[in-house]
Amino acid sequence: MKVIEFDTIVNEVKNLCMKANYELPDDVKKAFDEAIKNEESPLGKSILQQCVKNAGIAENEKVAICQDTGFSVFFIKYGDIGINGGNIYDAINEGVRQGYQEGYLRKSILKDPLLERVNTKDNTPAIVHLELVEDEILDITLAPKGGGSENMSKIAMMKPSDGVEGVVKFVVESVAGAKGNPCPPTVVGVGIGGTFEKVAFLAKKALLRPIGEHNPDPKYAELEKRMLTEINNSGVGPQGLGGRTTSFWVNIETFPCHIASMPVAVNLNCHASRHAHVRL
């Protein structure tokens, strides 16, 4: 069994927190370049160019791309390993605590959601989605999730009879109806199937797939293309001020479901679609 030191995980997570908040991934940078070339609205094109300039400053000066540095959401593949000195949850939270402090990142997490809305002052606890795998690996992906885009999430327990047309209508209306609130151009994660809680996870997980990479099932790949076309025909545009580029991409993830159900969820990332990854 492979053994990883507790402090090694803490240090890697700390660095992920800063990297994810300072640097846009290459797929997002490429999406901006394409959008600037294709955007027909002068104002929309100008907004996209300002977003690129902002991202460049953040990366060069090591400052946050956005003032909302998000809820720290982790997707972890946990293999046949041991951790010397603690457990994975404590290591993740300590790494977040150190990363948000050392990186001068805004702490946004509240101790209680309703009755005692007091800041925890270190951006913990993180959200950890843990997947057990057979390899001797610890694979960690961080996707900071800002409140503006997260608040535009939608879930519908649709009837099977709603079919493809109902799903497309729900997704397109959810994204277009959000207007400028999620800071478009967005990346759209769509979950279909499973149960109430599973479909929300699918929609969030879908946001991790790189822009430009379709669902491996050709039928769902075509559905992604159709949704993206209809979303961008809505005219919402960059920052909701009009144009062709309302969303960069649509990713669909699916899971088997009950014969009486057809859950559908939409989760959005803003134009700063942030994530960072490390494998130990």
Please give a structural write-up.
Helix content is 40%, strand content 22%. The longest helix has 20 residues, at 42-61. The protein has 2 domains: 2-20 and 65-144, no CATH class; 147-274, 2-Layer Sandwich (60s Ribosomal Protein L30, Chain: A), CATH 3.30.1330. The chain is α/β, with parallel strands linked by helices and 280 residues long. It is built from 8 helices and 10 strands. The model has no long low-confidence stretch (mean pLDDT 97). It has a 4-stranded mixed β-sheet with strand order 4-2-5-10, covered by helices on one side. A 4-stranded mixed β-sheet has the order 6-9-7-8. Strands 1-3 form a two-stranded parallel ribbon.
Would you tell me the structural class of the helices and strands?
alpha/beta
Low-confidence parts lasting 5 or more residues at pLDDT below 50?
Answer: none
Kindly estimate the percentage of residues that lie in beta strands according to DSSP.
15-25%
Cα gyration radius (Å): 19 Å
The strand line-up of the biggest sheet is 4-2-5-10
Kindly identify the CATH topology of the largest domain. 60s Ribosomal Protein L30, Chain: A
* Nearest-integer average pLDDT: 97
Number of individual domains: 2
Q: Globular, elongated, flat, extended or rod-shaped: what is the shape?
A: globular
Question: Mind summarizing the main beta sheet?
Answer: 4 strands, mixed
Number of discrete helical segments: 8
Distance between the termini: 13 Å
Q: Class of the largest domain, according to the CATH hierarchy?
A: Alpha Beta
What's the CATH architecture name of the largest domain? 2-Layer Sandwich
